[in-house]
Amino acid sequence: INMDLELARLVAEDLDYLFKEWYQDIDDASLRRSSPVLRALLVEGLLGRAAHQVNREIRVMAPAIARVVTQAELRECTFFQAGGAKYKGMMVQSMSMIPRAKTPAEIKASYQRSKDVIGKSYPVKLGVFLKQTSFVVKGVPINREEVIKYVANKLGGAHYDSSRPSSKESGEASLDQKYSLLDEVRMGMSTADKNAVYYELLSIGQRVANSRDVRGLRKLLDQVSSVPPVIRL
């Protein structure tokens, strides 16, 4: 295999870390400190690069509720969380709040669409998984990649930065405005007896670590990175 062996070693070590450390009892401080590992693998693209070098495609099991919840429904939410992490024997998947009472017809229609997908997952490409909605806060969607960046870049995972400039980007919420909304979630919401932001981060890490494609890649990278280099004289 024509591969960057140092990249193989780094990705193999980081995947081993996720498998061993991001378990059901991990605390928020440990998730924060290790968030740069998830950022390097997913946001900086090390996992995808390693997979590409061995002609593998990475698919992750995403919550199936994403297939039936419409963008119009998400925009109406004052709060939505994809969830799905296993934490101390509990799993919460897909919770939402809207600022009004639903009509009986809306409740029935929502139930009919979601009854067969609650608690289930479906495979998506890694890039699609990262761009799917993790949170909606006050009608603003925040994707998985942005949640990872928030913890690693703003909460002290790799950097601490409490500034939140209020600039607009193309009429949409800027990244810093999304960080401000995540500040509100972090300060006031819990999911499965865990801070909601860290619960979501745990869900992302667990879904990546438990992917069949990632498990196969991890095994291959362990083999590749353990081969001693050939020294040419």
Characterise the protein shown here.
The protein has 233 residues and is α+β, with helices and mostly antiparallel strands. The protein is 50% helix and 19% strand. The protein has ten helices and ten strands. The protein has helices at residues 5-21, 28-43, 46-53, 71-76, 104-114, 126-131, 144-154, 175-188, 196-209, 212-225; strands at 59-63, 79-87, 90-97, 121-125, 133-137, 140-143, 168-169, 172-173, 190-191, 194-195. A four-stranded antiparallel beta sheet has the order 3-2-5-6. Strands 1-4 form a two-stranded antiparallel ribbon. A two-stranded antiparallel ribbon has the order 7-8. The longest helix has 17 residues, at 5-21. The protein is globular and about 65 Å long.
Number of helices: 10
Element order, helices and strands?
HHHEHEEHEHEEHEEHEEHH
* CA-based shape: globular
Please give the share of residues in helix.
Answer: 40-55%
Rg measurement, Å: 19 Å
Number of E-state strands: 10
Distance between the termini: 21 Å
Low-confidence stretches: none
Largest sheet: 4 strands, antiparallel
Specify the structural class.
Answer: alpha+beta
Strand content: 15-25%
Rounded mean pLDDT score: 88
**Largest sheet: spatial strand order:** 3-2-5-6
Q: In a nutshell, what does this entry contain?
A:
This protein is 50% helix and 19% strand.
List keywords for this structure.
two-stranded antiparallel ribbon, alpha+beta, 233 residues, globular
Q: How is the topology of this model organized?
A:
Layout: H1 5-21, H2 28-43, H3 46-53, E1 59-63, H4 71-76, E2 79-87, E3 90-97, H5 104-114, E4 121-125, H6 126-131, E5 133-137, E6 140-143, H7 144-154, E7 168-169, E8 172-173, H8 175-188, E9 190-191, E10 194-195, H9 196-209, H10 212-225
Antiparallel strand pairs: 1-4, 2-3, 2-5, 5-6, 7-8, 9-10
Helix pairs in contact: 1-10, 2-7, 2-9, 7-8, 7-9
